[in-house]
Amino acid sequence: MSEEFHKIRRLPPYVFEQVNHLKRMARSAGADIIDLGMGNPDLPTPQSIVDKLCEVIQDQRTHRYSASKGIPGLRRAQAHYYERRFGVKLNADTQVVATLGSKEGFANMAQAITAPGDVVLCPDPTYPIHSFGFIMSGGVIRSMPALPDENFMQALDRAVRHSIPRPLAVILNYPSNPTAYLATIDFYKDVVIFARKHDIILLSDLAYAEIYFNENPPPSVLQVPGAMDVAVEFTSMSKTFSMPGWRIGFAVGNERLIAALTRVKSYLDYGAFTPVQVAATAALNGDGSDIAQVRSIYEKRRDVMVESFARAGWDIPPPVATMFAWAPIPKRFRHLGSLGFSKLLIENADLAVAPGIGFGEHGDDHVRIALVENEHRLRQAARSIKRFFSADEKWGKR
């Protein structure tokens, strides 16, 4: 029993824990750490959703086991949302399953479809569950460019020609966590045509579909004709409705893949607490004002962060979507790598960010900044950065 278990050995050290450890130590010593590391929304869940939960929870019949695939009303509400938002029609019985967040949905899908040695194509950098969900299920990850352009398509073609066995699936994530890249409907069309030609599964993470800052809402891959033959898409209520702790998400799309996921889930869970599912149903059936308010708050925070950090000497490209900024490490600190720079910020600026290396080897020259503090705290962080950058000129000599 002294050796690590096989699946644990396949996982690298959890990079974020090193930053979290320093953060805990600093706070225990009395430091006021501004935490922009974890994407943990600080906004309260809208009161109407909380009120619905409180109403339903009074009915003791709802305290029993729930439905693993989601109660019918919740699945119908998600189908209606897709029709309103994307013009995509879904069968709520066969093409929609509720998950315990999109992260659990991805991990369970990996368990459902992966055989030992299966090749999965995954963007780098990307959200860790996209790759490690398949690694834990016995798959092999081959990295792809994260930017949805011609380089992605060229890499996709090379992967099919040179991977043995042929790739099982391609992971898409737009708007992207951590990079905030957006995909166009034309890009999705190219990917769908390629996937259908080569019999490859498309797994699209659309958790940030409603957090965007221009006039063009991000599209769904399922809007493309023929996508339903090869694709499943994952969404989450965590960011859209500020419901991260409620653990409600969805997988929708190809019936065969949804059936596989549903079967695996039936062995693993009984679904979310029924009052939570009813409250989530009410949220999805709402008028959209809650979503618009959340979007507006993140946009204001983005603008404050970009402006104040630039005055502090750290130029960060303004993200066009998501609740994250993908921030290049200032040139004089780049030799430290993202983990070293993240540690330095905690120790010298009382600021926690997420090191880019935690999202893949191609992320090591960036850090991810989450917009999970109010505008006052973001300006406070900028002042701390400015003091650090001004006081520590030794870094400019390297």
Task: Give unreliable regions as ranges.
Answer: none
For the residues shown, what is the average pLDDT?
A: 94
Q: Order of strands across the biggest sheet?
A: 2-8-7-6-5-3-4
Secondary structure tally, helices: 13
Shape descriptor: globular
| Multimeric status of the protein | single chain
What is the element string, with H for helices and E for strands? HHEHHEHEHEHEHEEEHHHEHEEEH
Give the termini distance in whole angstroms: 47 Å
Work out the number of β strands.
12
Structural class: alpha/beta
Rg calc: 21 Å
Helix content: 40-55%
Major sheet description: 7 strands, mixed
Could you tell me the strand content as a percent range?
A: 5-15%
Features:
single chain, 398 residues, alpha/beta, 7-stranded mixed β-sheet, 3-stranded antiparallel β-sheet, 13 helices, 42% helix
Short account of what is shown:
With 398 residues, the protein is an alpha/beta fold. The chain contains 13 helices and twelve strands.
Structural description of this entry:
- 42% of the residues lie in helices and 13% in strands.
- With 398 residues, it is of the alpha/beta class.
- Helix 6 (128-135) links the parallel strand 3 and strand 4 (140-145).
- The chain is globular and about 60 Å long.
List the helices and strands and how they pair.
Blueprint: H1 6-9, H2 15-28, E1 34-35, H3 47-57, H4 72-86, E2 96-99, H5 102-113, E3 119-124, H6 128-135, E4 140-145, H7 150-162, E5 169-173, H8 185-198, E6 201-205, E7 231-236, E8 249-253, H9 255-268, H10 274-284, H11 289-311, E9 324-328, H12 337-349, E10 351-352, E11 354-355, E12 366-370, H13 375-391
Parallel strand pairs: 1-10, 3-4, 3-5, 5-6, 6-7
Antiparallel strand pairs: 2-8, 7-8, 9-12, 11-12
